[in-house]
Amino acid sequence: MNHSLTRDQLLSIAEEFGTPVYVYHAEKIAEQFQKLKHAFRNDDVVFFYACKALTNINILRYIRAIGANVDCSSINEVKMAVRAGFEPQNILYTSNGIAFDEIVEAKNLGVHINIDSISNLEKFGKKFGHSYPVGLRLRPNILAGGNLKISTGHAKSKFGIPVEHLDKVLALVDQYKIFVRDLHIHTGSEIKDVDVFVKGIAVLFDLIPHFKELEFIDLGGGFKVPYKEGDGETDIQHLAEKVHEAFASHPNPDGRHLQIWFEPGKFLVSESGYFITQVNVLKDTPGVHFAGVNSGFNHLIRPMFYDSYHHIENLSNPQGPEITYNIVGNICETDTFANDRQIAEIREGDYLVFYNAGAYGFEMSSNFNSRLKPAEVLVKDGKAQLIRKRDEFEDLLRNQIDLK
């Protein structure tokens, strides 16, 4: 079943909770998770939701309830996951350029840890030796992803330990008897070509014989989701078949079974999300019709930061004649959501909805221009509930110290 919210539902939410507002559809998240489970049903695969996409505590609790684990990118995300009820063995923490104190804190919480630098690996070995298992995030030198800003596995990326430093890694593992339990790679986001994952697996199979205590192979995430009609997406079923073939054709020399991990984030929550704004002003200039909404890149920065596309519809006048607009925000910078976009005729006061707004929408929002962050609403079992109240003016001053 394809789960999506109707225009009437979205209009009702906008009128009840005000705008701008992020709306998430719980059953769509579950549908996406079931796609993954069904595709990989013939293999021992575990999915860790990459919660950097969306960390509202209610979303995390729902993710746990449907049976997914959680992948964290900061120690505070780890603490959020614990607060949401995840058991330590179901939490993965993949570090990137962090202070070693964070790794120690993660270890004390009992979660899985991936280390991505020689420096922190050495510190870990000196402090913990073989007493606590750890994973290694490796940089496979594979360029992949929909935008260079979200490509994390190429030869000039800051992420991971370069595979050409294997000798240094092995020397540290031997010196401190480090218990390496998993090898991890993540090449980027918006990956449509499943062969990218196959290339990564090939890199890992060359390394596996060097680590005698491996239990897991972590292939990261980055599955592409469609943002507009005709947009390609990762063929999850084809990916599952390719992964199965790769592991079947590369049996471990000593017969060890290796569990496979994936870290889907955007794939689980992107299509569940809607961002609703209201039109403040219409402004006509020679050759351009501007529709200015009550939002900006302080609420949804993806179009400005990644040149990403979000389908936009006029909820209030869906049958109106199509007119070409530039949809822009109310920030004192250029914050264009869409250029030359055909949309049903817009009137001041109309509600516009941005689709596929569940991932990296609210999560990347800010209070730039001292604007207030929007509310968040979760629709589950047909019921819309507020899961984050809209900022109020006092929230802008909450951590400021008034000098006397």
Explain the overall architecture.
With 404 residues, the protein is an alpha/beta fold. The strands form 2 sheets. Strands 1, 11, 12, 13, 14, 15, 16, 17 and 18 form a 9-stranded mixed sheet that branches. The protein has 12 helices and 18 strands. The protein has 2 domains: 26-268, Alpha-Beta Barrel (TIM Barrel); 271-391, Beta Barrel (Lyase, Ornithine Decarboxylase, Chain A, domain 1), CATH 2.40.37. It has helices at residues 7-17, 26-39, 57-65, 75-83, 100-109, 118-128, 166-176, 195-207, 236-248, 266-269, 302-305, 393-397; strands spanning 21-25, 45-50, 69-72, 91-94, 112-115, 134-139, 161-162, 180-184, 216-218, 259-262, 273-285, 288-293, 312-314, 322-328, 336-344, 351-355, 375-380, 383-388. β4 (91-94), α5 and β5 (112-115) form a beta-alpha-beta unit.
Specify the overall morphology. globular
Number of strands: 18
Percentage of residues in helical conformation: 25-40%
H and E string: HEHEHEHEHEHEEHEHEHEHEEHEEEEEEH
CATH-defined architecture of the largest domain: Alpha-Beta Barrel
C-alpha termini separation: 61 Å
Output the CATH topology of the largest domain: TIM Barrel
- Biggest sheet statistics: 9 strands, mixed
Structure in a nutshell:
The chain is 28% helix and 24% strand. With 404 residues, the protein is α/β, with parallel strands linked by helices. Strand 3, helix 4 (75-83) and strand 4 form a beta-alpha-beta unit.
